[in-house]
Amino acid sequence: MTSEALAGPGRYLQAQIRWRWSEIAFWLATLLPFVLTPSYLLLASQVAITALFALSLDLILGYAGIVSLGHAAYFGIGAYTAGLISTAGWGEPLTGLFAAAIAAGIFGYLTSFIVARFHHLALIMITLGIGLVLQEAANSASWLTGGFDGLQGIHTWPMFGRFHFDLYGYTAYSYSLAALFVIFLIARRLIHSPFGLALRGIRENGQRMPAIGAPTHAHIRTIYTIAAIIAGIAGAVLAQTTETVSLETLGFQRSADVLVMLILGGTGRLYGGLVGAAVYMVARDQFSGLNPQYWYFWIGLLLIAVVMLLPNGILGGLSLLARRARAQS
Amino acid sequence: MPPVFGVLFDGLAYGMLLFLLSVGLSVTLGMMNFVNLAHCSFAMLGGYVTVTLTNSFGWPFFATLPIAFVAAAATSVVLERAFFRRFYNASDLEQCLLTIGIVFISIAAAAYIYGTIQQPLQLPPYLRASFNFAGLNFSVYRLFLMAIALLITVGLMLGIEATRFGAQVRAAVNNQRMARGLGIDVDSLFAITFALGSGLAGLGGALAIALVGLDPSFAFTYLIYVLIVVSVGGLGSIGGSFAAAMLLGVSDVAGKYYVPAIGAFLIYLVMIVLLMWRPTGLFGRR
Amino acid sequence: MKKLLSGLAGLAGIALALMGVVSAKAQDSVKIGIINEYSGQFADTGAQIDNGIKLYMKQHGDTVAGKKIELIRKDTGGIAPDLAKRLAQEAIVRDGADILAGFSLTPNALAVADVSAEAKKFMVVMNAATAIITTKSPYIARTSSTTPQLNYTLGTWAAKSGIKKVYTMVSDYGPGIDAETWFQTGFKEGGGQIVGSVRFPVASPDFSAYIQAAKDSNPDAIYIWIPGGTQPAAVGAALAERGIDVSKTKVLGQDALASETALKSMGDVAVGIISVADYDYTHDSALNHEFVKAFNDEFHRSPDFFAVGGYDGTHLIYEALKKTGGKADGDSLIEAAKGMAWESPRGPISIDPDTRDIIQTVYIRRVVKAGGGLQNLEFDSFPNVKDPAKARMPH
Fold first, then answer.
1. Pairing status of strand C67-75 against strand C29-36
2. Average confidence (pLDDT) over A30-38
3. Does the structure show a pLDDT above 90 at C205?
4. Do C173 and C264 have their domain in common?
5. What average pLDDT does range A252-280 have in this prediction?
6. Does residue C255 sit in the same domain as residue C385?
7. Which of C81, C94, C174 is opposite residue A39, by nearest beta carbon?
8. Is the Cβ–Cβ distance between B20 and B201 less than 8 Å?
9. Which range among C21-30, C148-157, C212-221, C339-348 shows the weakest confidence by mean pLDDT?
């Protein structure tokens, strides 16, 4: 236990929330693509969007212990909402984003009542089932969603009236990076707060929490709704920057991929989703470019290597190495 | 006989196939809590073994079935000894990641060796036929499939209820720590059970080809159905897997016949409702 | 310390991105960005398209009008329009692609169409069959077929051939619904009656319920539309099991229902199935026999409509480049492509100058026992079929 923790929860939280210079370095590094690899800005934009999505999953999985195989439902709802608003004629990005957040939040709030009541395998399969049902519904409602072909006619207006979303991706990456950073700040504040501590308590021992007066169900519903809102925002940014939305935005593949990325990066560490998303997507892009037919093989190898060498994901493994290095010095 | 019976017959056969594919995972998940998402890769392996033996070596179909079982079981033993047993104490999520990695590799390997094309399978002509009963047509192959599945089910139930090995398995599923405390070698027990379960999956994969086809994405596609059967049936329960597989097979087919518009939804809705009613599955531990 | 490492991980991630090679655009080469499925569920169709391209380049060399042709292959992995769009953008911006080609899946093609329009790049669709694709960018030409082109023709033929009542069953997604609409339109316009229809979910491992329902309504013919893959085998199994006698109740479908693999999996139950297609490897022309032999020698499998789409698409690119003298910008190439006509292994084809879509002969075939197995025998054909969907769109 650190000395701050012994000094009381308030001081502990204050210490946790101080910005470490490594975090500052991380965020400065996210600006590098503009300068060093401008032809990769579109990939960087996709990474930022996926990182935001992974962050939202981390809030429920890493911090509250809710394993969801259907989290893409909220991502897809956000994407379709933003897309539909655009096809209806209103292409302003930020207002579309808010609308998407609200839509995803409503659906998240409603499903949170179910989610809060179940655990373990039942919870995983129920979330999976909800995701699959939603995907089928979206396919059937092709008059609304465009079905298999996807939503057509999305056109995002220039940001602040000036910055066009073009082929080169400067605006796209700026937008997605800004969304990621702002929401990250909010999530960070949330985690390093009494509410965040309560969530970790629920994750570790959900049955004991009510004994100390923490309203478990209400907390779970709250964090689940927040995670749904964030996922919806990520989906909306995708819809707006790529001007396409299709059924796979709420599909099982997307839910499974983001779960893999989060575990890869390390759960419950706030940066885990970001690192996992970056590593997985860049690795996939590179493997796919080198070997389009069998890149699955290399990704599989990467996953196995990470599990064997870096317990608790990349960040978990690195922090273990760091602790060992510190212990030796 | 009203045509719905023909449809139900097909649904039961499909359910039996799902049972064969799922029972192994249910028992190993219940016993050791090891999340083996690569379970359907063993099924896929069994399928490809059968295809290779019949198409390239001209073996008769029946002879390939035991080989499919053995090949899948043997591979699982190797993987379990070399790999999986190091992760029994790892978190669920790590086991997920590890086994998903194996699924990816198995899919890439299958695509590399066999190509991505559908694997055609030449069944002996008497299996391809259909016979007429009470005015309805029934497929001989499905009957054959049901017969094999029922034999195996009976074998498993007898095995688990009436043999010492079965008693040890039940003990280990119920309370692993206690079982160890009583001197039961849970590790070898698990290795054997794991091999059996994977072997059954391999057999299921071989039998599935003529019903639903085989290509490298089999390992992923059927994982979802297997997870549904396992969760609805209850972990560690053979009877539960059987009941769940039947229920799902029949409701899937009946839904498609009577209300085709919601045909796809039904299996997921049934799963959600059943799990909300009984979260640990129909026959799971409370 | 922990966060330092997260920062370093972030840097490492970006550094990995630096591994990508930025190739400079050479003046004497023309780069084709092939956006295709090389992995995943649709990998086989992607492989066949690629084979078609490779064969054409092998036969005709890799230099056209003094320019070297370079291929840049990008894998979409399946239905992933956002990824397809990004890959197309990267192909243009990073790799210097002049032409975009490939495209099996409609959502991917539609997404890339935006890129083609914005960057003014010639785009050749080698497989995707939804009618509206060519309307999404003025630089798109198609060398495969459109769903209406094939299914409307089948519907018209069915009505003319004396079939009065049809029960339709299709996969419940874009292409299936498209096929159902156009088959029914053609059939009804010819005086036929649709006695029932069903749309089954895309991931349908088991067809017995649907086939039984079809049988219950006692039609003259059942029209089935499924994508390729595992489904034909399952359909064949259901047809046999539910006792559909193909000589009494005809079974109608599109090419994938009677592809080479489908026939192998279905076995003898498939004899008599009538399908509509733009190409079959058994097509009896000298050019096709040569093509099939060359394809077999090179790839040890038969070509299919995917392969021929890739082959003809490459031909279009080559001939267009010859016509423009090597100029590879979108405007020159699309002008050169409009109206181009040539003899393909499938028969005579041309690119409609108005819609930039393909005009070709549509064949009606029946499955027969031949050549030691099952084959499709072309017994009727409709030459110079334009895409009926666009013909009816308001101009």
1. parallel
2. 90
3. no
4. yes
5. 92
6. yes
7. C94
8. yes
9. C21-30
Tell whether C137 and C257 lie within a shared domain. Answer: no
Answer yes or no: is C122 within a domain. yes
ipTM: 0.87
* Structural domains in chain A plus CATH codes: 37-328 (1.10.3470)
B272:A133 CB<8 A: yes
* DSSP secondary structure letter of residue B217: T
**How is residue A325 written in tokens?**
């290095």
Kindly report the nearest CA distance between residue B116 and chain C, in angstroms. 5
**CB atoms C39 and A286 under 8 Å:** no
C43 touches B at CB < 8 Å:
yes
- Provide, rounded to the nearest whole percent, the portion of chain A with pLDDT above 70: 98
Q: What is the pLDDT of residue C395?
A: 57
What's the domain range around C265?
148-277+362-392
Residue C311 lies in a domain: yes
pTM: 0.87
Residue B22 has pLDDT above 70, yes or no: yes
Split at pLDDT 50, 70, 90, the class of B130 is: confident
Pairwise CA distance, residues C320 & C322, whole Å: 5
How near does any CA of chain C get to the CA of A168, in Å? Answer: 7
Whether C82 sits inside 8 A of A244 (CB atoms) is yes
CATH number of C272's domain? 3.40.50.2300
Min mean pLDDT across A291-295, B20-24, B246-250, C203-207 is at C203-207
Instruction: Report how far residue B219's alpha carbon sits from residue B208's, in angstroms, rounded to the nearest whole number.
Output: 12
Angle at A256 between CA A140 and CA C33, to 5 degrees: 80
Residue C132 and residue C39 share a domain: yes
Give A-chain residues touching B268 at CB under 8 angstroms. 129, 132-133, 136
C1 found inside a domain: no
Separation CA A190–CA A188 (nearest Å)? 5
In this complex, is the C-beta atom of B1 within 8 Å of any C-beta atom belonging to chain C? no
Number of domains in chain C: 2
pLDDT for residue B286 is more than 60: no
Distances in Å between the alpha carbon of C136 and those of C91, C221, C313, C390? 19, 36, 18, 12
8 A C-beta contact, residue A46 and residue C86: yes
Cross-chain Cβ contact C110/A26 below 8 Å: no
pLDDT of residue C2: 56
CB half-sphere exposure, C63, CA atoms < 13 A: 3
C106 and C35 fall within a common domain: yes
Instruction: Flag whether residue C215 sits within 8 Å of chain B, measured between CB atoms.
Output: yes
CB-based contact B7 C212, cutoff 8 Å: yes
Touching subunits of B (3+ CB pairs, under 8 Å) are: A, C
Q: Would you kindly state where each structural domain of chain B is located, as residue ranges?
A: 4-217
Q: Compare all CA atoms of chain B with the CA of A310 and give the residue at the minimum distance.
A: B94
- pLDDT score of C371: 83
Beta-carbon separation of B118 and C261 below 8 A: yes
C203 and chain A: CB distance < 8 Å anywhere? no
